[in-house]
Design brief:
CATH topology of the largest domain: ABC transporter transmembrane region fold
CATH architecture of the largest domain: Up-down Bundle
Strand order of the largest sheet: 4-3-5-6
Helix content: 55-70%
Distance between the termini: 49 Å
Radius of gyration: 34 Å
Structural class: alpha+beta
CATH superfamily of the largest domain: ABC transporter type 1, transmembrane domain
CATH class of the largest domain: Mainly Alpha
Number of domains: 2
Number of strands: 10
Length: 530
């Protein structure tokens, strides 16, 4: 693959523990269910710890039966004399209990995770509705969509496994090492050294991979934004032969995704073979020392060596799992941080306590010494004063970038003015709820927004209770009815997303019909051909 080196995003290391703590607090009352699932995971791990002991005793029992020393293969287990069949039944019960507890904790965590992601999507949707337009001026739509979809899905896919595995793994490591020291401290030291080295190596690699997971999530958002932008403007891209430049931009972002994803995945993957290396060294040491003890100590059981080797294998698996889980949690934290960043973004102030200011609107609009700027050092409107009387039709004319659409945005309170005032029938719009201000205006935007649905559904958008007769009357008033009847299913003709299956002029006629159907006291046509 021919790759070009793109500019790297300089992203600060994320607050891993702070983000995880907030994610846990976000669970709300489900934290207790998570605690219960964690307890089941701990119990499952403790039950699993007894499997090597029973397996070792079973091997010793088989040896006694095979050598003819004891026909029933009676062995001592914690002061109890058990036959071969009793040890075998104990193994089966242990395996069954481990399965039952593991299944229960998995069921509980799946429910918690699904509720968590459901609530996250709902909260993000509510948040988007309260964000001011200046937020979307600074963040690409594709990046916002990536936070709502991709980042939430990552949490959904990783959190269930991570929570159960982290508790299970730490319980296994501590309990196995404790039992090994009780059984034989000199052999246990070999495994403990391997565990400490493995954990140390894992912690170093986790810290190293931390920033790359964050960058990978950011780059994915950039890619979604780029694709969304190019898709919606594909005709313009083709008209101006901009495909090569668009491809270069795509390749540059793709290169960043490749590099950050490769580094994060590679760093995560090399933890496992390193841990395997130290684990295998401990196997070799235990086998050599155990073999020596078996040859020189007649009371030393062959099953004891099997038990220790199984414990070494068992303790190595959770160590590897801790390394994998740490990498997964890094990815989870990176996605959660992006989601919480959006949730923490400044919303439009709550105005629910403001009373309704106008009962009957005449349509008298005044701009008094209005000042506004999108950026601190770039004034857009300075000292504008204007008056529009009831029933008056006014055209705002000026070159591109003069601030015509900005006036509309200020009037609709999409942005707040820096100085001055805007009044409707003598009332400052800052004293009204935004919803009240916007309820007085019908509006046709520069971009004709059409959604996937029928012509009827598109015209009725915002006026769902309108009758078909009212829709038809609005379409006739906007001179849209004649073209609608030329479509195959008339008002039931299904429009594709963005209305790609009709012309630009027809899309605009539908949006004008939508504004006419709303029948608001004032109408704004933010488009020259409207």
């Amino acid at each position: 693959m021919n790759r070009r080196r793109g500019a790297q995003h300089k992203v600060k290391a994320n607050d891993f523990w702070g983000t995880l703590k907030r994610l846990i607090n976000y669970l709300g009352k489900d934290k207790w269910i998570v605690a219960g699932a964690a307890l089941f995971a701990v119990i499952t791990a403790l039950i699993t710890v007894f499997t090597p002991i029973l397996s070792g005793k079973l091997l010793t029992s088989i040896e006694l039966i095979w050598s003819g020393i004891d026909s029933q293969g009676v062995v001592d287990l914690f002061g109890f004399n058990l036959t071969f069949y009793e040890v075998l039944i104990g193994l089966i019960i242990t395996a069954s209990l481990s399965f039952a507890f593991g299944l229960t904790q998995g069921y509980l965590l799946i429910g918690v995770t699904q509720r968590l992601t459901y609530n996250m999507r709902a909260d993000l949707a509510d948040k988007i509705n309260t964000l001011p337009l200046k937020f979307f001026d600074k963040h690409k739509i594709g990046d916002v969509l990536s936070r709502v979809t991709n980042d939430v899905d990552i949490i959904n896919q990783t959190l269930t496994q991570s929570i159960s595995e982290i508790f299970r793994s730490f319980t296994l490591v501590t309990s196995i090492l404790t039992i090994m020291f009780i059984m034989r401290w000199d052999l246990a030291i070999i495994t403990t050294v391997a565990v400490i080295i493995s954990l140390y190596v894992a912690s170093k690699f986790v810290k190293l991979s931390q920033r790359y997971f964050r960058q990978a999530a950011q780059n994915t958002g950039d890619m979604n934004g780029h694709i969304e932008e190019i898709y919606h403007g594909h005709q313009v891209v083709k008209v101006f032969n901009h495909q090569p430049q668009a491809k270069l931009e795509f390749d540059e972002i793709n290169e960043r995704i490749y590099e950050t994803s490769w580094k994060s995945q590679f760093i995560s993957s090399i933890m496992i073979p390193i841990q395997f290396f130290f684990t295998n060294l401990s196997f070799i040491a235990i086998a050599m020392i155990g073999g020596y003890l078996l040859m020189n100590d007649p009371l030393f059981e062959v099953g004891f060596i099997m038990t220790f080797i199984m414990y070494s294998r068992q303790v190595s698996m959770p160590i590897q799992s801790i390394g994998q889980t740490a990498s997964v949690l890094q990815q989870t934290a990176a996605s959660a941080e992006r989601i919480f960043f959006m949730m923490d973004a400044e919303s439009e102030p709550d105005e629910s306590d403001k009373p309704k200011m106008l009962e009957k609107v005449k349509g008298h609009v005044e701009f008094r010494d209005v000042h506004f700027r999108y950026l601190e050092d770039t004034p857009v409107i300075q000292g504008l004063s204007a008056e529009i009387k009831p029933g008056q039709m006014v055209a705002i004319v000026g070159p591109t970038g003069a601030g015509k659409t900005t006036l509309v945005n200020l009037l609709m309170r999409f942005y707040e003015i820096d100085q001055g005032s805007i009044l409707i029938d003598g009332v400052n719009i800052k004293d009204m709820k935004r919803e009240e201000v916007r309820s007085y205006f019908g509006m046709v935007l520069q971009d004709s927004w059409i959604f996937d649905g029928t012509v009827l559904e598109n015209i009725k958008y915002g006026s769902e209770d309108a009758t078909f007769e009212a829709v038809e009357a609005a379409a006739k008033a906007a001179q849209t009815d004649h073209f609608i009847h030329s479509l195959s299913d008339n008002y039931n003709f299904r429009l594709s997303e963005d209305g790609e299956n009709i012309s630009q002029g027809q899309r605009q006629l539908i949006t004008i019909s939508r504004a006419m159907l709303a029948d608001k006291p004032m109408l704004i046509l933010d488009e020259a051909t409207s």
